[in-house]
Each structure stands twice: as C-alpha cells, then as structure tokens.
Amino acid sequence: MSRIRCILRGIDFKTYIFVFVMIPTCIFGIYLHGQKISYFLRPLWESPPKPFHDIPHYYHENVSMETLCKLHGWGIREFPRRVYDAVLFSNEVDILTLRWQELYPYITQFVLLESNSTFTGIPKPMVFASNRDQFKFVEPRLTYGTIGGRFKKAENPFVEEALQRVALDQLLKIAGITDDDLLIMSDVDEIPSRHTINLLRWCDDIPQVLHLRLKNYLYSFEFLVDNNSWRASVHRYQTGKTRYAHYRQSDEILADAGWHCSFCFRRISEFIFKMKAYSHNDRVRFSHYLNPKRIQRVICKGADLFDMLPEEYTFKEIIGKMGPIPHSYSAVHLPSFLLENADKYKFLLPGNCIRESG
C-alpha cells in the first residue's frame, strides 16, 4: 500500500483528470458511436468489390422492340419468353401492390412465399393471407406457398433467410418454371420497370444471369440515395443449376432498370416491425431507436434510422454521403400505378413525409 501511495503522490492533477474523466468519456463515446467509427474506417481493411460491366439501357415508348434489342447488341425472338416473378414476403402490402401492378402485363406466374416467422425468429401473422383479397387481379396467375418458422431467436438471421430462399426454389417448380423461362430474383421492394422485363423477354442472346441497376430510394421517392442498388437479377432458368439467391451472381448489370424503395411504409408500426425483424436487426443498438416520434423525425429529415454512416468502400464516398439525404421533388419516371393512384399512395411521393401512427 505504501508503494501505491507513493505512486499516487507522484501523479499531478492533470493526469488525474485524464485517467478519471477522459478515459471513461472515450470508452462511453466508443460505446455510443463505435459502429460509426467502424464504418468510417472500413476502407482501411476492406477493398471495394470488382466493378460490374454496365450495359447501357436504351428505351423509348415509340421505338420498336426490334430496334431496342439491336441497340443492346441482342437479336429479336419470334415470341417472348415466359416470366416468373418470385419473392419472399414479410409485411410490405403497399410495395407489393405497386410491384405487381407494374409487372402485371408481362408476368406468366407470380410466386410468393410467406412464413409465420421473421428472419430473426419472431412470430408474425400471415399478412399476405389476410390481405389476399387486395390481390385478386393476379389470382389466376398466383402460386402462393407458406413455410413454418423454426423460431430460433439466437441464430444468425441469414440462416433462416437462406432456408426460406431454398423453399422458394421448390415453390418455383410447383409453379411450373422450365428451362429458358425468365426468373426475377429480387426482394419485394426491388421493383424492375415493366419495359425492362418486356425488353428481356423479347430479346435473344441476353446474358444467362443479368443484374439490374436500380435507383435506390429510402422511405419514399422523395429521398434518392444513389443509382447503385444491384442485388435484383434476372435469370434464364436452368433446371438443376438456377438457385434463388440475393447476392452477386454475375458481372453483367443493366443500367437504369427500375426502383429500390427501402423502408417505404405507410405506418410507423411497419417501420418498427421491419427494424426488429429483418436480417440486420443488430443495427437496433438502443431501444430509443424504436421510438415512434424519433422515427417520424428521421423520415422527414431523410436521416438514417440506425444512426449509421454510409456503407461505402472509400473515404471520399463515405464523406460525400454523410448527413441527411437531399430532398428530391421529381416524380418523373416512377411506376405508373403510383401516379394513377397518387391519393392512396401519397406517402410515397415528394412532400408527404408524415406517416400514419397506427
């Protein structure tokens, strides 16, 4: 003890302040903002992925399909391919409506799989089943399946997600998909434009697997993040080879092929549900993130629900995207059904950030 007293006598006042004030403050700061620090330093330990080969996208409503295919370097078919649109469904009723209305003219079979569990093992109601009457317009072309959840809350959410995608493979077979049919692989909120799908079903010699570059929106079509959403893809189906997935499967990507509208919900309760239910639920680091008043403020500001920095691979891109997303007042080149029913879906249009509280 005497040695300890001698050591303490030799420490000046400034050192005491540093040890007992600054160090705990730094530790608390890392606890609060450690995720931000990690994302900001990402370029130091992770290199950007290999660039895609971007295919220019040519389209005008008055240009013939033969000319459009030729502009892309493809031939024209004598008859169009069949097209299957397959999705895993959670609770996105409004976005699913926009998706199916946009794609309806060119889809042979709509395939939807629903579970009674979220990816994080939380029990959920069968939302599509209870709202099925809203989708009578696709009923003759609908293959609907359900899967029971395993409710393993401590498990990595991506395990449950992968199992549901395997089940979707089986549902596609039940739906009658065959070789060289087109298969759209994307989440519900990743919506290809109808003219993109019409182009791919009519053109010959398109890539076996083609990713779609989508305009990336957050909360509504008021907040355009970038043009870099790439996970949606279209496949020329091959029996025994094609597997439903949501990761990179090709280097080919078609530019300006649709819209990705993430967290584009009508009600605050839907935001809260997704924040707790989807595969990245670990981003809800503090309970106040789920406060309805906070969520409403974040939506109208265009800020991040999880108080995170952008997921980029260079310091320039991270710094360039820091802060709220700029407001956009353009409603040009959006899904036609959205504009035709603007009163019902005004929460998705510029200038309507207030959400229903239910």
Which sequence of SSEs, written as H and E, runs from N to C? HHHEHEEHEHEHEEHEEEEEEEHHHH
Enter the CATH topology name of the largest domain. Answer: Spore Coat Polysaccharide Biosynthesis Protein SpsA, Chain A
The percent of residues in helical segments reads 25-40%
Number of strands: 14
In spatial order, strands of the major sheet run 1-13-9-12-6-3-4-5
Main beta-sheet strand count, sense and barrel state = 8 strands, mixed
What's the CATH class label of the largest domain?
Alpha Beta
State the distance separating the first and last CA atoms.
Answer: 63 Å
Provide mean pLDDT, rounded.
Answer: 90
pLDDT < 50 stretches: none
Computed structural class: alpha/beta
Question: What overall form do the CA principal axes indicate?
Answer: globular
Indicate the proportion of strand residues: 15-25%
Cα gyration radius (Å): 24 Å
CATH architecture of the largest domain: Alpha-Beta Complex
Overall description:
Keywords: Membrane, Transmembrane, Transmembrane helix. This protein is of the alpha/beta class. It has 2 domains: 1-46, no CATH class; 53-357, Spore Coat Polysaccharide Biosynthesis Protein SpsA, Chain A. Helix content is 34%, strand content 17%. The chain has 12 helices and 14 strands. The strands form 3 sheets. The protein has an 8-stranded mixed beta sheet with strand order 1-13-9-12-6-3-4-5, sandwiched between helices. A 4-stranded mixed beta sheet has the order 7-14-10-11. The protein has a two-stranded antiparallel ribbon with strand order 2-8. The model has no long low-confidence stretch (mean pLDDT 90).
